[in-house]
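Sample entry (226 residues):
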Amino acid sequence: MKALPDMPPVTWETADTLIEYEQAVARMEAHVDAMARDEAGEMVWLLEHPPLYTAGTSADPADLVAPDRFPVHASKRGGQYTYHGPGQRVAYVMLDVGKRGRDVRAFVGALEDWVIRTLAEFNVDGEQREGRVGVWVVRNDKPLTVTGQPPEDKIAAIGVRLRKWISFHGISINVEPDLEHFSGIVPCGISEHGVTSLVDLGLPVTLQDVDVALRKTFDETFGPSR
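Predicted structure, serialized as tokens:
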């Protein structure tokens, strides 16, 4: 999903305060509309949300275990229920998928590859799984499951929406969120696997460390940014 040679570099912005979900969605939609009018360029927005749950277009109401725990936001992105909160790096990607090949499956795969490259910067082996969108880590440090296999925990979620072939929403990587907060939902509709974070894996990684890695590996995956 590389940019065409004549496309300007992608711009980046990092929020220094927690951003309310509806505020973030409104800003993304405004930026996407401006891009469609050729009044704005591609952008990656790094931020954190206060604790909340989002319901994607495929969300099953039964997967909302604790509906009164945190605010619940209906989202038009693909996917099911996800948690967002402090200590989780959210990267909202507003990219022109139309100019990058018009292949939604390849675009989602590139987002997963971007996350995997980012995790590799910290010597973490992130993996893709057929039928499970997101990035997973095999937990060889935990007891084997009843099937005799090591358990797998989700470390990053992916959910995107396209409007006029321009993407918004994006990825979230668990750096140091409160993992207990995930217990209020069945994350992404998958109950047989857990969730983890870089700090949970024993790595003293900060959001700023992850931001540096995201910038480096984005350019390797999608092309130049500034």
